[in-house]
Amino acid sequence: MKLATILLNGEEQAGIVFFEGLLPVKLLNERLGHRWPTSLFDLITQQKLEELNQFIREKEEMILLHASLDLIPHHEGKYRPLYRNPGKIWGIGLNYVDHASDLNEIAPNTEPASFMKPDTTIIGPGDPIKVPHQSHRTTAEAELGIIIGKECKNVSPEEAPSVIAGFTTIIDMTAEDILEKNPRYLTRAKSFDTFFSFGPHLITEDEVEDVLKLHVSTVINGEVHRKNKVDNMTFKPWELVSFHSEVMTLRPGDIISTGTPGAIKISDGDIVECQIDGFESLINPVIDLKST
Fold it and tell me: What is the sign of the dihedral through the CA atoms of 54, 58, 61 and 67?
């Protein structure tokens, strides 16, 4: 199942992504007499995704028959961030060895290099990334995102697939010139407004045949800057879920951004994109606040 958050009638609503178009969950409820939560965050936190996924699989033909006139064409969907207030956003630094060499740093090989970001960094597809006045070298980084679906603590890598809601595309930003002044400035360098874009789709875990075979690409102005396969991560997705569940309880809606194959410096007027095999691309324009 693929899900999105779309802007409809001035309200951000969960939508189901069919091949034929987007169906707001609110309209699904009205047409078929159900009471599914109508925000994606509520679907996740109330742990209704598995139930909805099973319903869609079993009743897709009937749903499309009854709601065909309610479908929104994909090109008309006004995508928003999947949601705005996750409990936690974990980022992973230098998780591909090639990215570490870009920065003349040694990739961590004993434990993930983790950091946290506030929810005020969140933007969605098409929203501008704003390079702050304080930075003269900000980079953008395409990443695979993991969304937690069940509260968990001390799960093993083998158990990790059972606790996630799905995957998404992410563009993470870093004020690298601030970070270079002192590694202790990492939180500030990562936490400016607009420094975390995610969406447009959440793809449930059962839709991804082998996460390790996915290719992640950082793209700028239509050109692939860096591409790598998830299998080349130092710490694979299920290891990241397990590791962070040992640090703290993970709750539905928490996000783990798994690291980038390569960061690219962004400038005013650039268009940045995260491409992942089988996922709708995440695209954001860049505005440098020093140029406005």
Answer: negative
Structure tokens at 227: 């591409």
- What is the separation of C-alpha 57 from the centre of its chain, rounded to a whole number of angstroms? 24
Domains and CATH numbers, the chain: 2-76 (no CATH), 89-291 (3.90.850.10)
Please tell me the number of Cα atoms within 13 Å of 112 on its side-chain side: 26
Chain centroid to Cα 163, Å, comes to 17
pLDDT in tens, 117-146: 999 999 999 999 999 999 999 999 999 999
H and E: helices and strands count for the chain: 7, 17
- Encode pLDDT of 192-250 as tens digits: 999 999 999 999 999 999 999 999 999 999 999 999 999 999 999 999 999 999 999 99
Name the phi and psi angles at 171, rounded to 5. Answer: -120, 115
Residue 42 CA to chain centroid, in angstroms? Answer: 17
What's the one-letter identity of residue 164?
I
Give the separation between CA 143 and CA 173, rounded to whole angstroms.
11
Strand partners, 67: none
Ranges of beta strands (E only) in the chain are 2-8, 11-18, 21-24, 89-93, 113-117, 122-123, 129-131, 138-148, 164-175, 196-198, 201-204, 215-220, 223-229, 255-257, 263-265, 271-276, 282-288
Q: Encode pLDDT of 81-130 as tens digits.
A: 999 999 999 999 989 876 555 555 666 678 999 999 999 999 999 999 99
- pTM greater than 0.85: yes
CA angle 228, 232, 235 (to 5 degrees): 125
